Amino acid sequence: MYVKGFLFLAGLKNHRLGWSRWLLVLAFMGIAWQLYNIQVGPGAVLAVQARQMNVEEVLLEEYARGQITDRNGIPLTGVYTANGVVVFPQLMDDPQQDTKTLARILNINPDLLTDKAIDGAYRLTAPLNTAQLHSLQTTNLPGVFLLPVSYRYGTDTLAAHVTGHLGKIDSNEQLKQLRSDSGKHYDLGDWVGKTGLEYFYEAQLKGQQPKELAYLNLDARGRIIRGPGLTVETTRSDPSRRNVVTTIDNHVQQIVEDVMDAEVDSGAVVVMQAGSGDILAMASRPGFHPAPRYMEETIKSPTGDVFMDRNIALFQPGSVFKVVLAAAALETGLVNNSAKFFCAGSAAEPIHCWYEQGHGEITFPEAFANSCNPFFVHLGELLGAEQIINYAEALGLADQTITGYPVKQAQQDLSPIGSAFNLSNSSIGQGPVLVTPVQLAAMINTIASGGIYFTPRLVTGLSDDKDHSMEYIAGPEPRRALQTDTAKQLQELMRLTTTAGAGKQADLPVWGSAGKTGSAEVAGEEDTVNAWFAGYTPANNPRYVIVVLAEKGHSGGETAAPVFRAIAEQLLQP
Predict the structure, then answer these.
(1) How far is 149 from 211, CA to CA, in rounded Å?
(2) 315-326 burial: b if 16+ Cβ within 10 Å, else e
(3) How far from the centroid of its chain's Cα atoms is residue 231's Cα?
(4) If DSSP states are collapsed to H, E and C, what string results for 313-373?
(5) Which of 216, 246, 276 is the last residue of a domain?
(6) Are residues 427 and 550 in the same domain?
(7) What b-and-e string marks burial along 144-162, b requiring 16 or more CB atoms within 10 Å of the CB?
């Protein structure tokens, strides 16, 4: 009995020891998990807060965010470094007098500086003129330093509608949402993305640690430790922030914006890399400067719709849509180059021709090149709405997807083409037919690429603060939309448009071009149209697909085609 009892007690003890070990293991795992969460979650925030308890610091970067760059890593916002005024009031010999002197040099109210000093060290954001810079250098005020500051916005920013702009967090609801979406720390009043890529990639762009700062060390009582003096760091790392790398080419975008500023008051231009679908430039007018200091003035601008990106807005394409009908007719064998049609000009029914005298007897290639409305109304009747819709969809005119750019898609429906009385207007790109400039660029690229459709792409991926690639964003696989022979015949028709048709002003010596004009009537605007030219260059070895929309123009051939040529000529210069 005694032996049995002893064995029982020993077994019970071993059992309890086993449970104790497991409890210890579980406790240790819980602690390790908590430490892991602290390190990978709010760890960066806690590290910043811990450092701030031991230093008095001023950030030397305008916004602690990753950059939005072109395909070669060049920031599109015009990042630059310049001297900025950094003030440590604790180092002033006579804070009241020194503040007045600084205010006089900078021509600002000294009370503003006094208010800033309440919170400790600060940086002034106003740019310095030459006289102010010289005066600060010679006056040598204690506690006032001229230090290199990284500014996010230069004078010549690019692709403002694409990059978007910043604004302050102005509600607790927005604050909670941002913290939840990103897992990063935000405070009320922080600057965050409001539109464009700044908005869509806010969680990735947001920085948690300063990369450039100046600081003074503090003791346990918060007093400055005089020995080390001011420390300036400009090469720190912030693993939490990412750069957004776009497909935009800085050089191409600059050319487009310069030409638009000279030629287009209101409209859009897309440049796509032929054979890939990558968007090399995308500009909309009227434009705006994305720096927050200009926002109030921009919002009050009488121009109207300055924040609207016309490249992703829906417009009637006018005669550019005839490319769809030509593709359907060629692929189904409905027409051939020898087929003839009689154009009665202004007497034609149900829609007259823009050429009042009429083209008379005209072949299919001539009708395409000269954009003969009666011919394509007749062709639309032969094809029927279903065929037209099918080929419009095959050419991407029902898909607004842009890889890496998740904008809210505008409501688009091609089905009304088949409704009563709509077929004639739809056949010439009016009525219910609505497309975006980016969609037209993808359609023209399909023809230039031998019938292969490439989904437009605007973002290639994300990189870290050392410009090392961290994520690659690839679009859908290319798909065949047209037969190779159909694409070739369309190329010939579009080439004829620029050599002998309505698009002559888009032709280029040496390189050549191919494309289609469009003139879409605007409701209530009798004397003006939305003028289009959509094409590519060089004619025999396409490199650039260019779509031009000029609102309130005279015609596609007169208004948009010259803009196409001006851009193409500069792009092709050696």
Answers:
(1) 11
(2) bbbbbbbbbbbb
(3) 37
(4) CCECCHHHHHHHHHHHHHHCCCCCCCCEEEECHHHCCCCCCCCCCCCEEEEHHHHHHCCCH
(5) 246
(6) yes
(7) bbebebbbbbeeebbbbbb
**Among 476, 314, 532, which Cα is nearest to 407's?**
314
- pLDDT tens by residue, 8-21: 445 555 556 566 66
307 shares its domain with 364: yes
> 484-500 and 322-331 helices cross at what angle (nearest 10)?
140
Determine contact, residues 339/368, Cβ cutoff 8 Å. Answer: no
Number of domains into which the chain is organized: 3
Same domain assignment for residues 86 and 196: yes
DSSP string, 235-304: ----TT--EEEES--HHHHHHHHHHHHHH-SSEEEEEEETTT-BEEEEEEES----SGGGHHHHHT-TT-
Closest CA to 203 of 176, 171, 179: 179
**Other residues' Cβ atoms within 10 Å of the Cβ of residue 179:** 13
What does the pLDDT read at residue 7?
A: 47
Please enumerate in sequence order all residues whose Cβ is within 8 A of that of 147, keeping only pairs 6 or more positions apart, or say none: 60, 83, 84, 86, 214, 232
CATH code for the domain of 258: 3.40.710.10
For residue 31, the tally of other CB atoms under 10 A from its CB is 10
Q: pLDDT digits over 83-100, tens only? A: 999 999 989 999 999 999
Q: How many CB atoms lie within 10 A of CB 220?
A: 7
Residues 451, 514, single domain; the answer is yes
pTM here is 0.88
Q: For residues 123 and 105, what is the distance between their CA atoms, to the nearest angstrom?
A: 15
Rounded to the nearest 5°, which phi and psi values hold at 482? -135, 155
The Cα 81–Cα 32 span in angstroms is: 43
Domain harbouring 57, CATH code: 3.90.1310.10
Residues 393, 422, single domain; the answer is yes
Structural domain including 122 reads 47-246
Query: Using an 8 Å Cβ cutoff, are 59 and 207 in contact?
Result: no
Per-residue pLDDT, 20: 64
User: What is the token pair recorded at 571?
Assistant: 């792009």
DSSP 8-state assignment for residue 227: T
The answer for 228, left when phi > 0, alpha when psi is -120 to 50, beta otherwise, is alpha
- Give the Cα separation of 513 and 538 in Å (integer): 5
